[in-house]
Amino acid sequence: MIPDEEFIQSDSVPGPSKEEIRCLVMCKAMITSDDIVVDVGCGSGGFTVESAQIAKKVISLDKNHEAIEITSKNIQKHNIQDKVQLIEGDALKVIEQLEPFDVLLVGGSSGDLPQIIDIGIWKLKKKGRILITSILLETRVEAVQTLKNLGLYPEVVEVTIAKGKLMERGTMMMGRNPITIISAVKK
């Protein structure tokens, strides 16, 4: 995994998801060198960059222009331009136009999560994997219910990470936001 400090970041663009979260998501995604990955709501590009280290191709999208700019800088910094297609636009419209893909990562949905999942599952290849990361309780519930309504059996993992901060007297553990990872495999 790429250390957090190796990513270009912006106060106005979310991410990247913390290194430990990226590690778990990549493990659950089971990305191979033959896979096409779609990263919805790419933010600063943490999952895009990590996925492109393995996948054949990553299609990364966000409707926030600044997110696309930051992700582009991270793609260039990590020299993976030939493996990533960046698209600025609304996920609902963009996903419909894409070729079938193997892995769908959803980090941001702007309130359109059920529709993104519906369209994404339709475009996901058989045995394809979908992973949704959530910091909001409502998003977790929405993701699980939508996947169940589609006949899938979601796995739900909540992760709370604490990292040590060295102090004069010892190491203070500093908690980070809990993240829920919801994943499923298309039948």
Summarize the structure.
The chain has helices at residues 19-29, 46-52, 65-77, 91-97, 113-123, 137-149, and strands at 36-40, 57-62, 84-88, 101-106, 124-134, 155-159, 162-166, 171-175, 179-185.
Task: Give the strand order of the largest sheet, numbering strands 1, 2, ... along the chain.
Answer: 3-2-1-4-5-9-6
Work out the radius of gyration. Answer: 16 Å
Query: Which homologous superfamily in CATH is the superfamily?
Result: Vaccinia Virus protein VP39
CATH classification, class level: Alpha Beta
Derived from helix and strand composition plus strand pairing, the structural class reads alpha/beta
What percentage of residues falls in helices of 4 or more residues?
Answer: 25-40%
Q: Tell me the number of strands.
A: 9
Say what oligomer this is: single chain
CATH topology: Rossmann fold
Level-2 CATH architecture: 3-Layer(aba) Sandwich
Low-confidence stretches: none
N-end to C-end Cα span: 29 Å
Task: Compute the average pLDDT.
Answer: 94
Report the biggest beta sheet as strand number plus sense, adding barrel if it closes: 7 strands, mixed
User: Which percent range describes the beta-strand content?
Assistant: 25-35%
The string of secondary-structure elements, in order, is HEHEHEHEHEHEEEE
Shape verdict:
globular
